[in-house]
Specification:
alpha/beta, 3-stranded mixed sheet, 11 helices, 7-stranded parallel sheet, Rossmann fold, about 325 residues, single chain
């Protein structure tokens, strides 16, 4: 049994699906502040397997601990948290409260229930401005925004906890840029309001929900002047969590790995691939660079391959095709069901 906080979100729902397919039982604990219960209905529809859903907030230690105890879980995957960089600059206290205080409540609850296996959803934002590329796990840590700072605080909390008690088994997974959707087109990314990330925005332009794509900066020191990022298919990312759970079951330790492809694609690379996948032109315009954006950021994924036997399999064309299938079937996300 795996207990998943924030399991109805984009990455959480895809991870639930892969865990169910691998034979695990799953309990999801989610307050649905950034997600829809419908995502979990569809996960069960795709897998023909049931999972348990508990509505609750990880900062409510009483209900969290009760749900953990009742689940009989032997491991936790922790996705619950706010994740928009721009919003974190506007609302830093909300981010520290949700992400840091929420994680502290989760760890205290796990300790009470004698559950000491955790996979944590971290982010490449903990590297800050890259001092070298590709980014490996030894790169200095320094975030440039409150969202990244919360991830860094939590990582440090987890390392300190494991140092204090070696019976804890902790996997810290640093994601690069998750995109795409399940091949069924039934689950995918469903941003609330204006998308913060490139691919959902491009998809909404393609489907006619938005007039054009604003590209922030075309004067970076990159092959075409637009920002370069490491985009990873959400199914590959979900399978990385499965590999991490299996590793921790067999070996008690605290490890940190990058989950990325190791390939950097520019904004224009993504736009052209999406035009190819959708058959739709993506109208675009250029605006000045945004503060805090770096020119290039991509992973060195070799450690994950060596430690977990995991490697991203899906290319940019597949990411765009799957994202377009989801967007085409669900132009208004889950709320259109």
């Amino acid at each position: 049994m795996i207990f998943i906080t924030g399991g109805a979100g984009f990455i959480g729902s895809h991870t639930c699906l892969e865990l169910l397919n691998a034979g695990f039982s799953v309990t999801v604990f989610d307050n649905f502040c950034n997600s829809q219960p419908e995502a979990l209905v569809r996960v069960q529809q795709i897998t023909h397997k049931e999972l348990t859903v508990v509505r609750g907030d990880i900062r409510d230690r009483f209900s969290l601990e009760a749900a953990l105890r009742k689940s009989g879980a032997r491991a936790v995957i922790h996705f619950a948290g706010l994740k928009a960089v721009g919003e974190s600059v506007q609302l830093p206290l909300s981010y520290y409260d949700n992400n840091v205080t929420g994680t502290l409540c989760l760890l205290q609850s796990m300790q009470s229930c004698q559950i000491k296996t955790l996979v944590f959803s971290s982010s490449a934002t903990v590297y800050g401005n890259p001092q070298y590329l590709p980014l490996n796990e030894d790169h200095p840590l320094a975030s440039t925004n409150p969202y990244g700072q919360t991830k860094l605080v939590i990582e440090n909390m987890l390392r300190d906890l494991q140092r204090s008690d070696a019976t804890w088994r902790i996997g810290i997974l640093r994601y690069f840029n998750p995109v795409g959707a399940h091949a069924s087109g039934l689950i995918g990314e469903d941003p609330q309001g204006i998308p913060n990330n490139l691919l959902p925005y491009v998809a909404q332009v393609a489907v006619g929900k938005r007039e054009f794509l604003n590209i922030w900066g075309n004067d970076y020191d990159t092959p075409d002047g637009t920002g370069v990022r490491d985009y990873i298919h959400v199914v590959d990312l979900a399978l990385g969590h499965l590999a991490a759970v299996n590793k921790l079951e067999n070996q008690g330790q605290c490890f940190t790995v990058n989950l990325g492809t190791g390939i950097g694609y520019s904004v224009l690379d993504v736009v052209r691939a999406f035009e190819q996948a959708s058959g739709k032109p993506i109208t675009r315009q250029y605006s000045p660079r945004r503060a805090g954006d770096v020119a290039s950021c991509y992973a060195d994924p070799r450690h994950a391959q060596e430690l977990l036997g995991w490697q991203a399999q899906r290319d940019l064309a597949t990411m765009c095709q799957d994202a377009w299938r989801w967007q085409g079937k669900n132009p208004n996300g889950y709320s259109g069901h």
